[in-house]
Amino acid sequence: MKLGSWLIVIGLGCSLALTTGCILVAAGAGAAAGVGTYAYVRGELESTLDAPLDRTWRATQTAMKDLKFAVIKEQKDALQAELTARTAADKKVLVKLLKLTNNTTEVRVRVGTFGDESLSRLILEKIKANL
Fold first, then answer.
1. Which of 22, 93, 104, 116 is least surrounded by Cβ atoms within 10 Å, i.e. has the fewest?
2. What is the pLDDT along the chain (131 residues), one digit of tens a residue?
3. Has this prediction a pTM greater than 0.85?
4. Residue ranges of the domains in the chain?
5. CA 94, CA 85: separation in Å to the nearest integer?
6. Pick among 3.40.50.1580, 3.40.50.300, 2.170.150.20, 3.30.310.80: CATH of 35-129
7. Pairwise CA distance, residues 3 & 112, whole Å
8. Distance CA 52, CA 32 (A)
């Protein structure tokens, strides 16, 4: 192999190693932040709240009333809950709750088919405000 080819291979290897390291550091920083943070991935906003499932469920219902969304469907049991609503612009809003412990609940918010990050964050903030 020529010297130029080796330099390219070494450069690509170093780039990959450095990029992977950055990703691991970023993931570690997010994990250290803990409860109360959120992630927006593939159109869905996810957060873990310091509140029991029942209290988070009531806060979600109140948030929908505050935002004047039309609630279409509600389902809840002892471990999880799901609420489907429609905005005035007829966008579908889906909020899923999952009991993680007696005092923590995972919240997932999806707006529309492909997601709407700003509206999802607004909904999450309304839920948190009603806790």
1. 22
2. 565 565 565 655 555 444 544 333 333 333 333 356 789 999 999 999 999 999 999 999 999 999 999 999 999 999 999 999 999 999 999 999 999 999 999 999 999 999 999 999 999 999 999 99
3. no
4. 1-33, 35-129
5. 7
6. 3.30.310.80
7. 53
8. 22
At 50, the amino acid letter reads D
- Per the document, the length of the chain is 131
Tokens at residue 84, please? 């489907």
**Looking up tokens 């070494």, which residue turns up?**
10
Q: Do 61 and 76 touch, CB atoms closer than 8 A? A: no
Question: DSSP string spanning 57-120?
Answer: HHHHHHHHHHTT-EEEEEEE-SSEEEEEEE-TT--EEEEEEEEEETTEEEEEEEETTT--HHHH
